[in-house]
Design brief:
GO terms for molecular function: kinase activity. This protein is α/β, with parallel strands linked by helices. It has one domain: UDP-N-acetylmuramoyl-L-alanine:D-glutamate ligase (3-Layer(aba) Sandwich), CATH 3.40.1190.20. 34% of the residues lie in helices and 28% in strands. The protein contains eleven helices and 15 strands. The strands form three sheets. It has a nine-stranded mixed sheet, with helices on both faces. A hairpin with a 2-residue loop joins strand 13 and strand 14. Helix 7 crosses helix 8 and helix 9 packs antiparallel against helix 10. The chain is globular and about 50 Å long. The two termini are 30 Å apart.
Amino acid sequence: MRDGIIGAGNWILDKVKTIDRWPGEGNLCNILAEEQAGGGGPCNVLFDLAAMDPALPLYAAGRIGADADGDFLLAEIRRRGIDDRFMARSAAAPTGYTDVMSGEGRRTFFHCRGANAELAPEDLERIGLPARFFYLGYLLLLDRLDAPEPRFGTGAARVLAAMRRNGCETVVDFVSEAPEKFAKTVCLALPQIDILIINELEAACCLGKPVRKTDGSLDETRLRPAAECLMAGGVNSLVVLHYPEGAAALDRQGNFLTVPSCELERARIVGTNGAGDAFAAGVIYALYRNRPLREALELGSVSSYYNLLSPTASGGAVDFARMEAKRRNCFGG
């Protein structure tokens, strides 16, 4: 029986600054609070999963620098009981970091890739664990994995193919980027992805048109076509789209469903950093426990709900019992 979840990709130290307003260029705002915490797809997903279920076997994989920021991330990984044997340290590059400006329900990122740019297919292909899921994030932000590769198209596609041969189900997220970069990088990896979890802006890159109207409201009629586009591109099992208003999913059998978000008053939102990763963690955990797809989307929504109560990417994470109680309260059942 396969057991556990591997989280690989960007490991980042988030340096979160809560600000009082969003200034125009050349103007000033006040920093109200500062906090640092782990960030990046695998970090956020694994930290959230560790909070949900401390007994779940979790494995961290990536590259960090041989510096104080790297020491901080390793300490946080170990504090949560996550296996760090596949965390490599760069002799030359610093730990990747992001200055996160958070305020008024919005966030802006100033990012240094650091050692993440060195993460190579060889670093991940050696992982031979009998885990159930292999999560990789973020495509379009991992230089050597995004680079061309002769057999599979990109280094990321090569890694994902290796994980599938090893028996893992592959789960992928990517960042919002220019459509031409999406076509050159993400599309080549789609046939090696079992479960794709992305937001509506990223989905629009495949559809070739926005899924929001000119007034900013969601165009729900474009959600299914966007998911179908990604499925047609090669995704093997499931496409999940998340957005502030809710989430949608399309499986290989053609079943499509949507759920609303778990409501939260705007005044209670502390920060949105890591909300998408929190959603992914909830979905992954539900699928890992073989819960119905609708419940997986609902649990993802609840995970995002708690994330929004903290300025950091995983500071709001809670245990599964609390999440399940909130899910029943929000969605019934």
